[in-house]
Amino acid sequence: MKDTDIKKLLYAHLLCIFSIILSVLIPPLFLENFSILETHLTWLCICSGVVTAVNLVLYLVVKPNTSSKRSSLSHKVTRVLKCCIYFLMSCFIFHVIFVLYGAPLIELVLETFLFAVILSTFTTVPCLCLLGPRLKAWLRVFSRNGVTSIWENSLQITTISSLVGAWLGAFPIPLDWERPWQVWPISCTLGATFGYVAGLLISPLWIYWNRKQLSYKNN
Amino acid sequence: MGEPRGTQGLLDGFPILPSCVGKRVVFMGDDTWKDLFPGAFSQAFFFPSFNVRDLHTVDNGILEHLYPTMDGGEWDVLIAHFLGVDHCGHKHGPHHPEMAKKLSQMDQVIQGLVDRVENDTLLVVAGDHGMTMNGDHGGDSELEVSAALFLYSPTALFPSAPPEEPEVIPQVSLVPTLALLLGLPIPFGNIGEVMAELFSGGENSQPHSSALAQATALHLNAQQVSRFLHTYSAAAQDLKDKELHQLQNLFSKASADYQWLLQSPQQAEATQQTVIAELQQFLRGARTMCIESWARFSLVRMVGGAAILAAACFLCLLASQWATSPGFPFCPLLLIPVAGGLGGAVVYVGLVATIGLRLDLVLLGAVAAMCSLLTFLWKARAAWGSRKPLATLLPLPGSVRLFLLIRLAAFFSDSFVVADARATPFLLDSFILLLVAQLHWEGQLLSPKLLTVPRLGSSSSTGLPRYSGAYALRLGVGLLLCTRLAGLFHRCPEETPACHSSPWLSPLASMVDGRAKNLWYGACVVALLALLAAVRLWLHRYGNLKSPEPPMLFVRWGLPLMALGTAAYWALASGADEIPPRLRALVAGASVVLPRAVAGLAVSGLMLLLWKPVTVLVKAGTGAPRTRTVLTPFSGPPTTQADLDYVVPQIYRHMQEEFRGRLERTKSQGPLTVAAYQLGSVYSAAMVTALTLLAFPLLLLHAERISLVFLLLFLQSFLLLHLLAAGIPITTLGPFTVPWQAVSAWALMATQTFYSTGHQPVFPAIHWHAAFVGFPDGHGSSTWLPALLVGANTFASHLLFAVGCPLLLLWPFLCESQGLQKRQQPPGNEAEARIRPEEQEQPLMEMRLRDAPHHFNAALLQLGLKYLFVLGVQILACALAASILRRHLMVWKVFAPKFIFEALGFIVSSVGLLQGITLVMRVDGAVSSWFKQLVLAQQR
Question: Is beta strand B25-30 parallel, antiparallel or unpaired with respect to B43-47?
């Protein structure tokens, strides 16, 4: 592992953060009455789209996993299709988990589902970009001593911090402050976003500080 | 936003009073009054007040009706409750342009009223509270409790010009003043003082007669307060005798002076002023005394109680860590604190007796507890402090610490206490998912083959996964599903527009739709049968059902009978209206007999269980001759495969250990063979039977549809036990420990079940109808039986989970057989089984615990202490919250009831825990004597 890798990682992450900031700042120029809280669902869609696009671009430009052996067209197409299916599956699984956690079953279905979409964007999309649609690799990355590169390590950190952010976002909901952002699922989506951004910031720093202890055998 | 809540004391019953004596009371404004004083108004204009962001609806509504109503003259009292300023304060704060607009609007209103008020009318403009710099209120700061009071009448009210610096008048004084001005009696519970100036009769009257009028008003007021004090002090003892006596003297003197004044009216002005001053002094003294007595908090006792609680929790934590270490001195550590406590109590009693103070039982208890705690800590320090630093004794795992902290912090926020019914399942779900994630993280969830990177093998092979595939994941999802389903039976602490209680909590009898009622009844009976079938299936699976012992016979025949009785009782209770009249007596008799019969059956079942708790099937015969051993495991052709699975060969080892000497003597006797089945699950079988027997009467105390929650409860705890067992490696030969995660999850689940059985820690939510189950005509004068029934209903989940607590220790051993079977079944694992030939033996399961009786006892003690610690920390947090936030607006509505419920629940849990552990010990003793009998029988 070299410092250039960490630098690359940092720039990639800064780009992601920048894209999220842009998703807040740019839409008001085109859309009337746009604000994160009032037109929350629009923002969710835009943010999800932008983050997905940036992740794809980064994946194509940086190519962190070099192990793309076969590259026939049909293989690529099935891979892309599989990725789409995986993404949809993860959205539905997140939705089910939210409902099991106490989200309303029938009311606010669209809101809950879009929250699932944005959380999938922060967690599943990077996994798909980095690891491809291979469940075994995912399970490996999210277990002790399972990571094999700084990219996987940062993936671990950002995914976990997004999930933790979304979880923490549920805490203000019962409070009686009567703020507009305490409504389900706004606080959770904001929490997930902040968690994702925090993960993006923390992971390069954490890897940099622990670079002596980290040793990836496959590198 | 019930605004008038801060003014409850002021308004209590006041608006009803005028309407009782024929006055016409007209109201306009906040619709909260509609519920507070139903039917009190001759005419009313209510406007929705709930939305705090709506500044104008109420005010504009009032303004629309105010002047026409005033001019119409159809009123004696007109109340207009403007709400805009309050909402504006909440929403924008005091320094906002909106507030300026609102205030000038109010100015205009007052101006308009002043212009229209007639000579015989008094305009009272009063605020019920002030606000902080943020515009909120509810606390007790100076800014919040001060409000303006403005009185106006075209007739001059005051004999002289009002003072520059206006007088501060307590809000309670409004009630007697307005009551007397309206010519009404002063409400009985009033402790306010009339504003004497208003009774002076204006500037035209003679100073002499005005002073007399003031004295009369004050005297009426003083008479009422004196009567109130008299009645109150007869009923309650919290007023100080000495002060009361002084006040009574003052009142008699003032009364006498007043009578004298009446008889000789031409007294000097000074005398009149003296009488007025005396009466006022009496009224103020009475008010001060009452306020001191009613709003009195004993800080010393609060701190003392919290300190004792904290020390006890600390003790639990320390002792639970030490219990499993070798050489833990049980006896001295138990006896010395008891002796210390008794000694402390005796010393305290002696001290009190010598000084001559009154014996305070609370203080006595506190002194005894403190002494026993101190002696324990001192003894513990002497025994262990030198060897181990304290830091290593506090090893709560990170996740448990986090969850406990979140839970404890939540007790300090009224919103979270109110939302606890939602927050607890949330925390429980997170805890379960975290457990699953941890299992995966540690590589115990999946077989190492799946993790393709080869070097991972090193870490995974040591902690061999006992379960293949996504077993724990399935358990976790099942738990989440159960929790969510149980959450459907949710009851709100208060009915608000934002929260609706589940309609399924009401009894079936209240349903109108006959078809739906029948369907629900069917579902409840199915739940009952499913519960029964699940327990029987479980007992069958571990073989204990085959035992010919009385408890198992009871499970076979008595439990279905109990289920039948319950179902029949539900049928009678839900269809009570549709019964033909000639059967009514029969039905009434049955609804008395059936619940009592079920309870009686449950009690007799428990008695049977305590009498003969060992539920094993013994098969003896003259088997293959052995030379060296007296007893050998059953090895002939088994009747079923299941028999073979549960043969426990360990009897041999046991008896060899326990009765080695005796056996050696009798070695020469003939060869014998004995087979005992189900010994591996003998403890849990007794526990599960006891829990089922307990659950049935508790279920009967709830509404019918809660039976579904009880089914979910059993399912949930079953899944949780399996999930927890998946993460615990089986320790052979001790020391056995139950991890903190297991105990915390168990406690969380107990709380969650408390809520999902339709309870809330507030008094209006108590299920009073439970007192009439089996006693449809009430209890007469007896109070303890209804209290017991209602208590059993309220704390059913605390009781069940506390009694079932030892299952946390037993379950991993039960799962041993399951794990082995699973491992033997797939052919791919044969090689692995060959490596560990000792595992090919039949599983020892719970007999492992008997292999190390000392460790078993220690583990039980540790389990109990850990559970007590987790509960104790919660009650400590509740107590701290109630005492720190004692001036909080919500203290009597939220924090204090929560504390009371937690404290009672803690007591119930402690008793239940003790009973559960006692049951395990009883089974243990019975198993020992069973072995003894077996040996003796073999020898003969």
Answer: parallel
